[in-house]
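in:
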């Protein structure tokens, strides 16, 4: 509690807490600083950097059709805002500093002609087309698309966000919250970006882990990304290639499963045979914080003690947190400004 009080008293202006230090939390925190330059902003989390789920994410900009906001218009706005944010970041700052890079590749299938076409992605990309007959023959598939998109490597992007946040005067506090009520009196408003933690902090029973298991391998000859059907993917990042994956709904297994390892490896080698020569750097398991609809909304929370707290929620992104963090965070900051007294926004 003393740590919360000290952080809240530091600085001037409105006191803002952001709960969660994954990609959604840190993106939200930096956008708050841009919207409220005089605010005192503190990121509170029990995990930072490589401890977070965001660290293991491959970070490709490629929405699944199950990613949803409250309606299709809002969903498309989040995606468009996010893509524009990363594209501008790449143009202004470059790959070395931010971890954002262009990446081209394929989505193939032998059995599902419709799955290779992504209606949410096509309007955003400059290059998105059906595969040529020659490309299909060369890779041994019946159906496919080729596109050029963006990939955000969180091993670089999270440190970039952290540097930007702290250089602007933002504060980081390692603290485990049992309840958002702990923040009452210390902060004027809270942005809740707690991901899977919202299951307990908000008593939100709709938050469900979707277990993901991947390999990180050294395979510098892999230049394109590859998807096959639903869950097989090969995604070259800056330092490693991600091989995946699994999509185990409501699974709390945090350990590497040898059967999943075998299945992932076999599927990837079948799609791109040269993967058999890759050096395995590590295997990783994470819980995607899934919710049927991503929750971005404001709430005046009331507690049994009679205390109240202004909260803006921004969680439930599932496996699309890296991809959509900018768009949902822009929305969350807009809602936060609506909740603050007019004089606090000056």
């Amino acid at each position: 509690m003393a740590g919360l009080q000290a952080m809240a008293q530091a600085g001037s202006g409105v006191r803002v807490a952001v709960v969660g230090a994954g990609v959604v939390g840190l993106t939200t925190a930096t956008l708050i600083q841009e919207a409220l330059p005089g605010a005192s902003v503190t990121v509170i989390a029990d995990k930072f950097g490589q401890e977070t789920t965001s660290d293991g994410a491959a970070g490709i900009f490629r929405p699944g059709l199950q990613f949803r906001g409250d309606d299709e218009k809002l969903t498309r706005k989040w995606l468009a805002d996010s893509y524009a944010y990363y594209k501008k970041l790449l143009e202004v700052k470059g790959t070395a500093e931010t971890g954002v890079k262009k990446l081209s590749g394929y989505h193939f299938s032998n059995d599902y002609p419709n799955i290779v076409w992504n209606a949410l992605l096509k309007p955003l990309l400059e290059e998105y087309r059906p595969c040529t007959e020659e490309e299909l023959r060369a890779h041994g598939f019946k159906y496919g698309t080729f596109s050029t998109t963006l990939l955000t490597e969180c091993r670089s992007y999270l440190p970039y966000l952290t540097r930007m946040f702290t250089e602007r005067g933002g504060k980081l506090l390692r603290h485990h919250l049992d309840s958002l009520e702990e923040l009452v009196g210390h902060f004027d408003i809270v942005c809740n970006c707690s991901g899977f933690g919202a299951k307990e902090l908000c008593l939100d029973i709709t938050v469900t882990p979707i277990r993901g298991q991947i390999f990180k391998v050294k395979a510098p000859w892999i230049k394109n990304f590859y998807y096959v059907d639903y869950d097989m993917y090969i995604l070259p990042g800056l330092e490693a290639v991600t091989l995946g994956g699994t999509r185990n709904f409501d699974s709390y297994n945090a350990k590497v499963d040898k059967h999943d390892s075998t299945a992932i490896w076999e599927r990837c080698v079948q799609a791109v045979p040269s993967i058999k020569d890759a050096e395995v750097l590590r295997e990783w398991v994470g819980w995607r914080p899934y919710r049927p609809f991503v929750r971005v909304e404001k709430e005046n929370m009331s507690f049994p003690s009679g205390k109240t707290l202004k909260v803006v929620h921004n969680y439930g992104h599932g496996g699309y947190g890296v991809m959509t963090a900018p768009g949902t965070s822009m929305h969350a900051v807009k809602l936060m400004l609506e909740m603050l007294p007019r004089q606090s926004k000056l």
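note: Residues 72-93 form the longest helix (22 residues).
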